[in-house]
């Protein structure tokens, strides 16, 4: 029985356009003290895991390889998806590649986490519960009423319910109740236990993923077989339906770096300049003045400029989706 850090790196980071593009998603941006979020993830979890297994996609696996090489990590496995089929299938591939009693510590590659004693305690408890046959999720104690995350309602380590991203009023209620946690998107379980549950709840995802996995050549999956796999998240496929789920209530510093609001807060802590009205420039040294604006970000890349109010950071996804149709060369 070994513990593997399964790093999911297939995301695009649509809410961080124009910094994040299909050819260079947010987990590969070296703007976090000179490192990428992908590198930080791989380093952080070496303390708990004997092995690294990266599930990436055909567009970005070369970036993962480069990042691991720069981080001085040469011993890892990889599975290369032909096309994105969501997290249930991505995790299934990793489980098929593992022994049934191996523990998979599943982490997205684009989260910023403070690796302190609180983190260590949470991960060790999750591995302990996973070895006892549970499917474990991590619940983060909310710091503010956040509308960008899903929530877990819990009683101790027992999960009472999973909740979708709430509106502000509902998020405020969750915060006041005190037993609601941010759903971190990190999981821990034995490969065989996960596959049993997936087979029970989503037999088609299980079967089609298995067929694609069996036909893989050197870890690269076949496109036609992959396209037959239903695209379903692990939350919907297993987490929200299994009776074996436990939550580890956690208090380590965590952010999914999923919006410019979180990037702003991170850069602010790092001493990145902003003016007296909280306006910040990212990506250019050109002298910039903001008049009559507060908490505004100007983000510049070689081919695009984005101007947004920090509080409207979630709306960048809509811009990305529009450009996907109208100007695909920009994404």
Q: What does this entry look like structurally?
A:
The chain is of the alpha/beta class. It folds into two domains: 3-255, Spore Coat Polysaccharide Biosynthesis Protein SpsA, Chain A (Alpha-Beta Complex), CATH 3.90.550.10; 262-330, no CATH class. Helix content is 33%, strand content 23%. It has helices at 37-44, 61-70, 86-96, 117-131, 168-177, 191-201, 203-214, 223-227, 234-239, 260-269, 316-326; strands at residues 3-8, 51-57, 77-81, 103-108, 112-113, 135-140, 151-155, 158-163, 180-190, 245-250, 254-255, 280-282, 296-300, 305-309. Strands 1, 2, 3, 4, 6, 7, 8, 9 and 10 form a nine-stranded mixed sheet that branches. A three-stranded mixed sheet has the order 12-13-14, with no helix packed on it. β2, α2 (61-70) and β3 form a beta-alpha-beta unit. α3 (86-96) crosses α7 (203-214) and α6 crosses α7. The protein is globular and about 60 Å long. The mean pLDDT is 94.
């Amino acid at each position: 029985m070994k513990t593997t850090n399964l790093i999911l790196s297939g995301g695009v980071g649509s809410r961080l356009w124009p910094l994040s593009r299909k050819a260079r998603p947010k987990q590969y941006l070296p703007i976090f003290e000179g490192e990428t979020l992908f590198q930080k993830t791989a380093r952080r979890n070496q303390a708990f895991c004997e092995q690294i297994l990266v599930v990436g996609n055909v567009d970005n696996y070369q970036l993962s390889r480069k990042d691991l090489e720069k981080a001085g990590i040469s011993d890892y496995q990889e599975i290369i998806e032909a096309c994105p089929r969501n997290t249930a299938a991505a995790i299934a591939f990793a489980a098929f590649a593992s022994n049934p009693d191996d523990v998979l510590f599943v982490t997205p590659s684009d989260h910023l986490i403070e690796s302190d004693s609180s983190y260590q305690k949470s991960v060790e408890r999750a591995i302990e519960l996973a070895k006892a046959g549970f499917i474990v999720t991590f619940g983060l104690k909310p710091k503010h009423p956040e509308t960008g995350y899903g929530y877990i309602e819990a009683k101790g380590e027992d999960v009472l319910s999973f909740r979708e991203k709430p509106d502000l009023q509902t998020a405020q209620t969750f915060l006041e109740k005190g037993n609601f946690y941010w759903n971190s998107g990190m999981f821990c379980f034995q490969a065989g236990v996960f596959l049993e549950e997936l087979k029970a709840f989503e037999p088609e995802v299980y079967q089609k993923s298995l067929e694609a996995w069996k036909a893989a050549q050197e870890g690269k999956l076949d496109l036609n077989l992959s396209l037959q796999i239903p695209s379903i998240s692990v939350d919907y496929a297993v987490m929200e339906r299994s009776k074996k789920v436990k939550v580890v209530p956690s208090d380590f510093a965590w952010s999914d770096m999923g919006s410019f609001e979180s990037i702003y807060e991170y850069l602010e802590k790092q001493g990145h300049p902003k003016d007296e009205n909280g306006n910040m420039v990212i990506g250019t040294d050109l002298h910039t003045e903001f008049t009559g604006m507060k908490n505004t970000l100007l983000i510049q890349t070689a081919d695009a400029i984005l101007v947004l109010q920090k509080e409207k950071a979630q709306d960048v996804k809509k811009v990305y989706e529009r450009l996907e149709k109208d100007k695909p060369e920009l994404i």
